[in-house]
Amino acid sequence: MPEPHLNGAYYGPSIPPPSKSYHRPSHGGGGGGCCCNPFTCCCSCIFNCICTCIFQILCTLLVIIAVVGFICWFVLRPNKVNFHISDASLTQFDFSTRNNTLYYNLHLNISIRNPNKRIGIYYDSIEARAMYHGQNFSIVKPDPFYQGHKNTTDLNLVFTGQDSVQLGSEYNVEKDSGVYQIGLRLYMRIRFKFGWIKTKKIKPMIKCDLKVPFKGNGTFERTQCNLDW
């Protein structure tokens, strides 16, 4: 109700203005405030730059290696070296059950063909092992040699002597048939040469599985060998 001593209407006491509230910046991860640390931003930028540079360097190296490899392949055009057993002669292959001794006289001719025009091969060492059903019975080591471009080299291997082995029933079966299944393994250390560059030694193994007729029981068929790294 209006007071009688006042001119006009009175509606109660005056309302004070709203007080201002102040918020301190938050130092933690929560809340509404956000603070940018210049040191953290700088470290993140440097790290990103380093990762980008490393990635670009690796990509560049891969491209260079690919280009150099393609150029070498295009210039050299490497082809696989071929190994064949061109001839085999077996004049003795007798097994004594009394002392488990195998008496043998085996001659093999190996034909090695290097078809490459610009690559020569150093055969630094060769170890030839004659095997019968997984058992070694003789080892010979031909002399080292160098094979030039587009060259065919023949190696004559002679396995003769006696050795103690354990043979099963397959020996009697093959003795009756007159054809023996003999394996040859060539363990080699070789280097390739193109121009004045020589590679490091590598150690391939050549695997030959042969069917060798005993003397007078047929003709040996030329057999290709397989390369096993």
From TrEMBL:
Locations listed in the record: Membrane
Entry's transmembrane regions: 54-76
Domain of life: Eukaryota
A GO cellular component entry from the record: plasmodesma
Organism: Solanum commersonii (Commerson's wild potato)
Pfam families (UniProt xref): LEA_2 (PF03168)
Membrane topology term: Single-pass membrane protein
Annotated protein name in UniProt: Late embryogenesis abundant protein LEA-2 subgroup domain-containing protein
UniProt KW keywords: Membrane, Transmembrane, Transmembrane helix
Example GO BP: defense response to other organism
Protein's UniProt keywords contain Transmembrane helix: yes
InterPro entries: LEA_2, NDR1-like
Start and end residues of each Late embryogenesis abundant protein LEA-2 subgroup domain: 110-203
